[in-house]
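Thread: 6-O-phosphono-beta-D-fructofuranose complex, take 2
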Amino acid sequence: MTSPVDPTTTPAWAALGELRDRLSVDFRSWFDSDPARAKNYTFRAGDLIVDLSKNYLTPEIHGALVGLAEQVDLAGRRDAMFGGAKINTTENRSVLHTALRAPAGAQLVVDGVDVVAQVHEVLDRAGAFAERIRSGEWTGVTGKPISTVINIGIGGSDLGPVMVYEALKPYKSDTIECRFISNIDPTDMFEKTRDVDPETVLFIIASKTFTTLETMTNARMAKNWLINSLEHSGTIDGSSAQRARAIARHFVAVSTNLEKVAEFGIDTDNAFGFWDWVGGRYSVDSSVGLADLVAVGPQNWADFLAGFHEIDEHFRTTPIDHNVPALMGLLNVLYVNFYGAQSHAVLPYSQYLHRFPAYLQQLTMESNGKSTRWDSSAVDTQTGEVFWGEPGTNGQHAFYQLLHQGTRVIPADFIGFANPAHPLREGGQDVHALFMSNYFAQTKALAFGKTADEVRAEGTPEEIVPARVFSGNRPTTSILAPTLSPKVLGELIALYEHITFTEGAVWGINSFDQWGVELGKKLALQIAPALGGDEQALDAQDTSTRLLIENYTSLRAD
Ligand code: F6P
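Output below.
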């Protein structure tokens, strides 16, 4: 295993520190003195036009960031990932989500197997299955077509599928509704099944491992709910043959663990595999997205994958100085390590992208929330910002106050689209244009602010002038695309995957394991008996946890 370069020891790191100390950020003068600034720092990746000009970029900083990429060998690590090297060192796995969207006919042989051929075999099967559901050829146990698809999964087996379903609603079939059950809170199961017709429902059990507590508990509950409902209405009798037939018609699985799928009682003919080289949070474009594939159909799905692939190719082949994901990742490093940024806002100006920030939270934070590097040495830099956000304009009326006048640097990405899915008008006005005026206004206000003199010139009483000043110089990136199509959505997801990769590569961390989620899972299993009255399990707890459980028990109504 080669050790990562410690970024803090590189000449570029020293140069960035020196530039931070020497240059005071002043967007007004930077734009005034360089009329080409906006143009020079606007880049293209696929259909995405990405304006980086309102970032802390000068030719010197740009050069130092590119130098940093070279000195930590970002390109080498990127090529290792694309080539199938086992860069996920703690799990000894390749990291090949990029193979999920490689075009048919491309070849990538890893451990003697052409993974692209494997991908397309499953993709074709999943596409054919989706068509059978969509056409009504696949029916439930009583012969009725499927009208509700319920995906049961959590983390990467849920956040991606939900986000994509919401984002691509204008492209979905009118006859099929998808729902998503993730939480082990039983209310999630209750609410999502309460009005569902068991004769027309299809459950997709999505779990890479097929062992996740939440998913397997919910899957068993769904199985019981289905059988009980069908038996209660007299649709099936209680014979094991009828039960098995009902499960075969109403349950399919998505997993890397086909043995466990069979154990659960799902026919492996109705299971769609993927591979250990796909991380959960990088899996929405594998069969984990089956619910979405059913909803939008194979052609839209092919466009979605083509969008990913276009950005993969951009990241793989574009020199770093105008490589959009690489530059965005490097800028994030700059803000975290040189300007003390602790969080990063993602603000889509599209209501259809309302789950995109939540999706990015797992992608970025499960990937880069690490304190050790890929050779297990300790990091000596900050890593992993908190990603968060909400669609504009709603966020403007909630948390933007802190973005504009708060004390911290919070870099923000604004994502907007030229063409709306629904071009509605009000009072003769194009409502989308009004909406997008806000997208442009916010980055302008954040960058250029408002001086005390400008506030005074408006006749503001002197005593409240300071409260009405906007410092400006708050960094933003504006991402603009023609429309939120399946292809553009694929491009956006791949963009953030590679931004995340770039940050991880600079910090020298393995962005592809997630050991930090294990401890809590194990402790929950040890604590569960204590909630069921097991005195020994209760006594084994620390005093704080024990008292909390005792208080919980005393509050229980049963
Ligand atoms: O708990 C974290 C995690 O392992 C995620 O990385 C993963 O996406 C999620 O759980 C679900 O895992 P699975 O798909 O195996 O059920």
